[in-house]
Design brief:
The chain is built from 3 helices and 25 strands. By secondary structure, the chain is mainly β.
Length: 371
């Protein structure tokens, strides 16, 4: 169980790899990808409407190269940022909106056992990319709140590092002890109140799943913030528990992709992942959690949740049998609806843009709203 569960680092993107196999196999579900909209003019310099970044086409682990795209939430001003034929993963705007950081596959692709990965940034003013790390295994980068530093891990979850935003002074923050309850660290996020959150692979009483911990940038104050839920990972399946923590702007709420040990309808090789929310404080028995999945369609695949700069909305990946599209999806902080935005994966907001997410992702945009 342990070897299968830890074969690939991040849990929700393991879901994407399994989903890619489902879509390519004979048991393909009824979800179809949307056609790519035609590229339009370059990113506007105004501060609204909301702007997002994501990778497309398809999902990690698919047999396509995923490049970085940015666009307004209503689909306008779509621009392909990278185009070098090497897949990128989980792009994030810097706090001032002038740069992107992402993981890049210099050899191989997501789901391969030992790809060559490093952290890269793209500078909009220079219209150029720069490789910041040279280890061949750096992965899953996140900006510090002031944009001067970057936290990152490795593809196989061997630890957590911080470097300056120009790639200098890489410093180890911490690494897993290797105990059963502290096996791998993945899925890094850095909150506005200066906590670094990450997922931890754990085996407790013979049950493997994934929880969320936090730590200060200087390596102090480590604490559990979830226990990963009650479910164990079935042998050979994607791991149960938390993945891809997204943090609210005030640092008080964690949004997680919570995995369950059963497949969603239409995707027999995948597992159900639901949008969950819980407080960012230390975990204790009985800590409250909120299931934000739709009551009308609860058993889907939802992952990589990212809260909007105003805290009112969440971007996530969604694939659900019977729905016409999968990909980047919008909801509110209560999870009361789902609105498809674009084909793609791993979307995040430009924090330097302030706009009306309801207006710019409204029903008038032609996308279907599911409640």
């Amino acid at each position: 169980m342990r070897a299968a569960a830890l074969a690939v680092g991040a849990a929700c993107t393991a879901a994407a790899a399994a989903l890619a196999q489902d879509l390519g196999g004979s048991n393909r579900g009824p979800v179809a990808r949307a056609e790519e909209p035609a590229p339009v003019r370059a990113i506007a310099e105004r501060r609204s409407p909301p702007q997002i970044v994501f990778t497309a086409p398809g999902i990690p682990g698919d047999d396509v190269v995923q490049e970085v795209y940015a666009m307004n939430l209503d689909g306008s001003n779509r621009r392909q940022i990278t185009r070098d034929g090497r897949s990128k993963f989980l792009p994030h705007f810097s706090p001032d909106g002038k740069r992107l950081v992402y993981s890049k596959f210099y050899a191989g692709k997501y789901g391969d056992p030992d790809p060559v990965t490093d952290v890269a940034i793209f500078d909009f003013a220079e219209n150029a990319e720069e490789r910041l790390t040279g280890t061949g295994k750096a992965f899953a980068a996140a900006w510090s709140p002031d944009g001067t530093r970057i936290a990152y891990g490795t593809y196989h979850g061997e630890g957590l590092w911080i470097m300056n935003a120009d790639g200098s002074n890489p410093t180890l923050v911490g690494r897993p002890t290797g105990r059963d309850d502290d096996q791998r660290w993945n899925d890094i996020a850095w909150s506005s109140d200066d906590w670094i959150f990450f997922t931890v692979g754990q085996t407790v009483a013979g049950c493997f799943n994934v929880r969320v911990d936090k730590i200060r940038p200087d390596g102090t104050g480590r604490a559990m913030t979830s226990d990963g839920g009650p479910y164990c990972t079935p042998p050979g399946r994607e791991q149960s528990g938390d993945a891809d923590p997204g943090i609210s702007p005030d640092g008080r709420t964690i949004y997680s992709s919570r995995g369950f040990p059963f497949p969603p309808p239409g995707f027999p090789g995948s597992v159900v992942r639901k949008l969950y929310a819980f407080a960012s404080g230390a975990w204790a028995p009985g800590k409250a959690e909120a299931d934000l999945s739709l009551a009308s369609a609860p058993d889907c695949i939802e992952g990589v949740p990212k809260a909007s700069p105003d805290g009112a909305h969440i971007l996530l990946f969604r694939a659900c049998a019977g729905e016409p599209h999968m990909g980047v999806t919008l909801t509110d902080s209560a999870g009361s609806y789902r609105r498809w935005i674009a084909d793609g994966f791993g979307a995040d907001w430009n924090p330097a843009y302030r706009g009306d997410a309801d207006r710019n992702g409204s029903e008038d945009s032609g996308s279907r709203v599911i409640r």
